[in-house]
Amino acid sequence: MTRDRLLGFAVLLLLLLVPCPGEGAVPRRFSLAAAGDALIHKKVYTAARKKDGSYDFRPMLRLVKSRISAHDLAFYNQETLLGGKELGLSTYPRFNSPREVGDAFLDAGFNLVSLANNHTLDRGEKGVLRSLEYWKGKNQAFSSGSFATGKEAEELRTVKVNGITCAFFAYTTATNGLRAPKGSGHYVSVYTPGRVEADIKRARGKADVV
Fold this sequence. Notes:
This protein is α/β, with parallel strands linked by helices. It is 27% helix and 16% strand. It has one domain. It has a five-stranded mixed sheet, with helices on one face. A two-stranded antiparallel sheet has the order 6-7. Helix 4 links the parallel strand 3 and strand 4 (112-114).
């Protein structure tokens, strides 16, 4: 969704130049690519289905792979849950997608993933936890916006790129009227000005870029 996408981009810098002290010092830089939403409708996952029942979305990203993988960080919003076919695949209005979607985006070079959007709660608590289970096993990816526990939500997530420490936060402005179970607000990070201000304050002094 456009507004969620803008919020995701708001926490990123498209180009970073951090000056180092000292005469003749070489500036530190990193490159970032930013894409939009992976919103997987039925027609998309049907087209990716193989004869053995598995899915392969990599051909759909083959034309952008070389450009994406050339960057230090590459961001996209995983709009639909990756609960897998064990949860039951579903399309609009409450999505659940094959986990092979994530495999394809990682293979293409994406490594910065927003999990906060208006479809995060589409399949309830089980959907959130199954999707997070997938991402937990992907060490090459750095995700934010949805957490299994309140403790995880409070942890400052940083990644160091070319000597530059980056903190990453992701938010959504809506959940399509769906609510997380009581006491489980950490399942999706909902945007408020106060929340963003608090997040930036706790990153101050620990990250070069937020």
